[in-house]
Design a protein that fits this description.
By secondary structure, the chain is mostly helical. The protein contains seven helices and four strands; from the N terminus they run ββαααβααααβ. 54% of the residues lie in helices and 9% in strands. The N terminus is likely disordered. Pfam families: Phosphorylase.
Length: 169
């Protein structure tokens, strides 16, 4: 635990000071097309270290996935912050498989980014549906049990429960 110096003695951080350290304020929203385009290009150049001359469709897919992930990170951090502050009981669901399917389009829709991403990718001369097809199904099972486990996790998330799924991978 970090502390601040107060008169030569270490003083524990106040709740407000601790919250400031893990605050997610200032993370840019990606709701508009220009911001999505900017983030996409930033990830293409700085995360994937590619330019338009050598980038493959798979590189474009990863640039889009990282762009969407940027918007998700703030929510993940706020969730962890909430868990830290409230210390809720947690549910751990064990299953040999979780069939989640493809997640990029689902995440864009759930975050309200689908239209902005579609338009930004179109303006960049790319086809968003083609990029979405590059995503592989998460190889965590494909049977009824895997789909059921994924539905349980979705339901628990919808209810706002602190739930985690554990499988063999």
């Amino acid at each position: 635990r970090r502390s601040r110096q107060g008169g030569g003695m270490a003083v524990p951080l106040t709740d407000g000071e601790r919250r400031k350290q893990i605050s997610v304020r200032g993370i840019a929203g990606l709701g508009d097309v220009a911001e999505v385009r900017k983030s996409f290009n930033r990830h293409l150049h700085f995360t994937l270290v590619k330019d338009r001359n050598v980038a493959t469709p798979r590189d474009y897919y990863f640039a889009l996935a990282h762009t969407v992930r940027d918007h998700l990170v703030g929510r993940w951090i706020r969730t962890q912050q909430h868990y830290y502050e409230r210390d809720p009981k947690r549910i751990y669901y064990l299953s040999l498989e979780f069939y989640m399917g493809r997640t990029l389009q689902n995440t864009m829709v759930n975050l309200g980014l689908q239209n902005a991403c579609d338009e930004a990718i179109y303006q960049l001369g790319l086809d968003v549906e083609e990029l979405e097809e590059i995503e592989e199904d998460a190889g965590l099972g494909n049977g009824g049990l895997g789909r059921l486990a994924a539905c349980f996790l979705d339901s628990m998330a919808t209810l706002g429960l602190a739930a985690y799924g554990y499988g063999i991978r």
